[in-house]
Amino acid sequence: MIRTRISTVNNEKLLEAQRRSLFWRIHFWAALIASPFALVAAFTGILYIFTPQIESALYGKMDRVVPAGAMRPLDDAVAAANAAMPEGLMLRSVVPAYNERDSVKVYFAPVGTRPGHEGHDHGPAADSISARPTVMYVNPYTAEVLGSQVEAERFGNWSRKLHSSLLQGDGWRWMIELAASWLMIMLITGIVLWWPSKKQNALPQKGTQGRPAWRQWHAFIGIALSLISLIMVATGLTWSKYAGEQIRGARDLAGQAPPQAPRNLKSAAIEGATPMNWQSAWDAARRQAPDVSMQLTAPRGAHGVWRAASFDRRQPEKKFDLVLDAYSGNSLYYAGWDRQTAFGKATAIGIPFHRGEFGWWNQAVLLMFGLGILFSLVSGWVMYFKRRQSGALGLPRLLPGAWTSASPATWVTAIILSMAMPLLGLSAGLVLITELLLHWRMRKPATA
């Protein structure tokens, strides 16, 4: 009986050691793959955090105005922007002045392209230097054009593309997605390896020096930032190329797609009547929508409709989409915060948080996160070089039977994550092939 109990305890200890060595190995591979891209993402992300301050310094004279009496009708600002419109562009949408110091922003797109999101080009005409999506800034008090700017060249859009693709176009977005995928694995395996036990302290110990000190602070910083790391990685993956498609597919299957206005909505054209002008449409939208900065899109054709949507992501609880009859101003469709799905609400909060758009506290948290990521990556490699012996690869030791020691739950989790993050699955396959080659090399008998 005693021998059986001892044998059971020994088997449990062996299994625990095997699994721990496996998680160490996976943690190392995750760091090896993610580090170069994660370093780039951290540095460019820290730069992007300070977008509000940088844009205020760069574009304050276009974004802000000095109040001077009553604002003129919105149509005056739109007419002024149209008169100064660059050749090859057509009016796309308008963001009226929300605060008394805001300028009116009039968005233009290349002729022949469909309306899209700010900061993105649509169609071949967008490749022309003389016909790129452009914003005209107009003083709402005087209807004076304050200036114009190509959307993609505004610092916020430029730094966001630097962060996501190093300014190399969508074809390079895979780099940050690959880093985010393996950062998720680093986070999961790091938590498993850190999880405190009787033999392990959760906090750094005073007086510890050398590699043990690096290890303790590496673990402590990583765990302290684990929640925000999960939020940042998850929200980043939602708008990535491959993982984003998987996430959106799962969202739609789960019935969590955002509400969409029916495509067949039409205005009831009244004989002899003209559609509402910009000011009337803005007034009608403000009567029916939350008090928030909004973007207006004019109707196309006699039966077209006015569309209004919230423009300020810093107030997600006021997010709305509104469709108005072009003649009466009556609502044909409205979806506010209460119509948003749980997934939609989570992303409406998570994405602005990821971008640091909730104010100084949000920027401070993200700066701390970015510096923490840099420390985690650098300290991990410091520990690696302190452990690695000259002439050796320095891979964490993998105990015999480690790969078969993983629990069914571990394998199921790995399969789900690989399906959700295709780049993770593809690169993980290459890691497994490398592991097989290393195993074969170690077992191969030495030749004389």
Automatic annotation (TrEMBL):
It comes from the Bacteria. The chain crosses the membrane at residues 26-50, 174-197, 217-239, 364-384, 411-438. Keywords: Membrane, Transmembrane, Transmembrane helix. InterPro entries: PepSY-ass_TM. The keyword Iron does not apply. This is PepSY domain-containing protein. It comes from Noviherbaspirillum saxi. The lineage of its organism: Bacteria, Pseudomonadati, Pseudomonadota, Betaproteobacteria, Burkholderiales.
